[in-house]
Write a structure and sequence with these properties.
The chain is an alpha/beta fold and 465 residues long. It is built from 17 helices and 15 strands. The radius of gyration is 22 Å and the shape is globular. The N and C termini lie far apart (56 Å). The structure holds 3-[O-phosphonopyridoxyl]--amino-benzoic acid. The site of 3-[O-phosphonopyridoxyl]--amino-benzoic acid has 18 residues, from helix 6.
C-alpha cells in the first residue's frame, strides 16, 4: 500500500477511512456515504482540516486539550521518556519514576486527603476501577452486601461495560446491556425538567432522590454515589446551587462513598484545579483523565482518600490493574502538562480573564431568538435552543433535530460547537484568548442566524404539544 499522508486528496482519505475505520458513536454507513472530515493539524485553539479550513475548536478536542494543541514541551517529554524507559509495568512490586512523580503531584493538587492514585488508561477504565474499589472496600469492612452504586440519569461515565452502566444514557444501555448493581436517580436539569419550581427548590428535590433511593434499597446495600460535578456529555448541565451541598449532606449522613467524576471538570475546566472545589464537594474518590494529559496521550486514574486506600491496601492483593496503569510515557507527558498549567497560570487565566470575558458574551446569546438560556461555569458552557423562550418549550421535531442543524452550520462556519439534543455546548481549550473568544462568538451568532433561517424554511419553529 502507498504511504498514507496529510497530502493525499481528501476523497482518498475518506474512502480508506470508510473502508477500514470503525468510528465511536457513529452510524458507519451513513458517515461513509457523507464523507468523514479529516483533521490534519492543531495549534493552540486552532485546527486545520484536509481542505485547509482553519477551525476554532470550541470543544478542546473531546473536552480534553486544556493547554491547547501542539506544545513542543510535551512532545519532548514523551521523546525523552521513550528513550529513557519506554515501558515498564507497575505490577509485581515494581514502579518507575514517572508514575511516582505523577502520583505524588496529583496527591499535592487534589483537595483533602485524596492522597493515593490508581492509574488507568482512560476515564472509562478508571470508573471500572472505582466500581471494584468501592465494592472491595465494603467487603473488607465486613459489609459485602454494600455493592450498589447510585448514579444519575443522563450522567456519562464512559463506554466500557462498567462505565456505560454507571452512565445514565439509555441509548448506551441499549447496545450491549448493563452490569448489575447500578441504579439511577434523576438529574439536576432545571431548565428541561424543573417545571414551575425555582432552580434551588428543584436542586434540593433532585438531591433528595438520593436519600429516597438509599432508604428504598437499604443503606446496608449501598456502596457509593457517583456524579459529575457538572454533567458534560449530558449537555453541560450546571446544577442549581442547592444540589451538591444536599448530596454531600446525604452521603455524610448515611456514610456512603462519594465519587466525583472529574474527567471533564478536572484540571482547570471550572476555574479551579477540580470541579469539586468549585462546587464544595468532598469526594472519597475522584475519577480523572482527559485534561490530566491535555489529551496528548491516553491516561486516566482514580485519586483515592486515605481511608479507602489504606483499607484496600491493608487487606492483601487488590486483584485489578491494567497493562498501561501508570504508563511511563503517558505519566511523563501528564507531568509536563501539569507543569505548564501551573507555571503559565492557566487556571488563573480561566478564572480572571477567559471566563469573565466569555461569560458576558455567552449570556448575550440569550438575545438571539433561538436561545432560551445560556449557562457557563469556568470554560464549559451550554445554550438551550427553543421555539418559545417564555415557556422553555421543546421543539415539536425529534429531540436533537434542531441541534444537529445548528451544529452543521457551526461546522460550515469553521467553529466546533457540538449539540446534545437541542442544547449547544462548548468547552474550548483553557488558553483561549479574548480575541479568539470574539471569533468563537461571532461564528456562533452567524451559525445561530443561519440555523434559524433553516428552521423557518423547514417550518420547524414549532413547540412540542
Ligand atoms: N467520565 C466522564 C465525566 C466523561 O466525560 C468518561 C468518564 C470516559 O472517559 P474515556 O476516556 O473513557 O472516554 C468521560 C468521557 C461526548 C463525549 O460526546 C464525552 C466523553 C467521551 C466521549 C464523548 O461529549 N467523555
Amino acid at each position: 500500500m502507498n504511504k498514507i499522508t496529510n497530502h493525499m486528496p481528501t476523497a482518498e482519505l475518506q474512502a480508506l477511512d470508510a473502508a477500514h475505520h470503525m468510528h465511536p458513536f457513529t452510524a458507519g454507513a451513513e458517515l461513509a456515504a457523507k464523507g468523514v472530515r479529516v483533521m490534519t493539524q492543531g495549534k493552540g485553539v486552532w485546527l486545520t482540516d484536509s481542505e485547509g479550513h482553519r477551525i476554532i475548536d470550541g470543544m478542546a478536542g473531546l473536552w480534553c486539550v486544556n493547554i491547547g494543541y501542539g506544545r513542543r514541551e510535551l512532545a519532548q517529554a514523551a521523546a525523552r521518556q521513550m528513550e529513557e524507559l519506554s515501558y515498564y509495568n507497575t505490577f509485581f512490586q515494581t514502579t518507575h519514576v514517572p508514575a511516582i512523580a505523577l502520583a505524588a503531584r496529583l496527591a499535592e493538587l487534589a483537595p483533602g486527603d485524596l492522597n493515593h492514585v490508581f492509574f488507568a488508561g482512560s476515564g472509562s477504565e478508571a470508573n471500572d476501577t472505582n466500581i471494584r474499589l468501592v465494592r472491595r472496600y465494603w467487603a473488607i469492612k465486613g459489609q459485602p452486601d454494600k455493592t450498589v452504586i447510585i448514579a444519575r440519569k443522563n450522567g456519562y461515565h464512559g463506554s466500557t461495560m462498567g462505565g456505560g452502566s454507571l452512565g445514565g444514557m439509555a441509548p448506551i444501555h441499549a447496545h450491549g446491556g448493563m452490569i448489575g448493581g447500578i441504579v439511577h436517580i434523576g438529574q439536576p436539569h432545571w431548565y428541561a425538567e424543573g417545571g414551575d419550581m425555582t432552580p434551588d427548590a428543584f436542586g434540593l428535590l433532585r438531591a433528595r432522590e438520593l436519600e429516597e433511593m438509599i432508604l428504598e434499597l437499604g443503606v446496608d446495600k449501598v456502596a457509593a454515589f457517583i456524579g459529575e460535578p457538572v454533567q458534560g456529555a449530558g449537555g453541560v448541565i450546571i446544577p442549581p446551587g442547592t444540589y451538591w451541598p444536599e448530596i454531600q449532606r446525604i452521603c455524610d449522613k448515611y456514610g456512603i462513598l462519594l465519587i466525583a467524576d472529574e474527567v471533564i471538570t478536572g484540571f482547570g475546566r471550572t476555574g479551579n484545579w477540580f470541579g469539586s472545589q468549585t462546587f464544595g464537594i468532598r469526594p472519597h474518590i475522584m475519577t480523572i483523565a482527559k485534561g490530566l494529559s491535555s489529551g496528548y496521550l491516553p491516561i486516566g486514574g482514580s485519586i483515592v482518600c486515605d481511608e479507602v486506600a489504606d483499607t484496600v491496601g491493608g487487606a492483601g492483593d487488590f486483584n485489578h490493574g491494567y497493562t498501561y496503569s501508570g504508563h511511563p510515557v503517558a505519566a511523563a507527558v501528564a507531568l509536563e502538562n501539569l507543569r505548564i498549567i501551573e507555571e503559565e497560570k492557566i487556571i488563573d487565566h480561566v478564572r480572571d480573564v477567559a471566563h469573565p470575558y466569555l461569560a458576558a458574551k455567552w449570556q448575550a446569546l440569550t438575545d438571539h431568538p433561538l436561545v432560551g438560556e445560556a449557562r457557563l461555569v469556568g470554560l464549559m458552557g451550554s445554550i438551550a435552543l427553543t421555539p418559545d423562550k417564555a415557556s422553555r418549550a421543546k421543539f415539536a421535531s425529534e429531540a436533537g433535530a434542531v441541534g444537529y442543524r445548528c451544529r452543521e452550520r457551526c461546522f460550515a462556519n469553521d467553529l466546533i460547537m457540538r449539540h446534545v439534543g437541542d442544547r449547544m455546548i462548548i468547552s474550548p481549550p483553557l488558553i483561549i484568548t479574548p480575541a479568539e473568544i470574539d471569533i468563537l462568538i461571532e461564528r456562533a451568532w452567524k451559525s445561530l442566524d443561519e440555523c434559524l433561517a433553516i428552521l423557518k424554511l423547514e417550518g420547524m419553529m414549532k413547540a412540542a404539544a
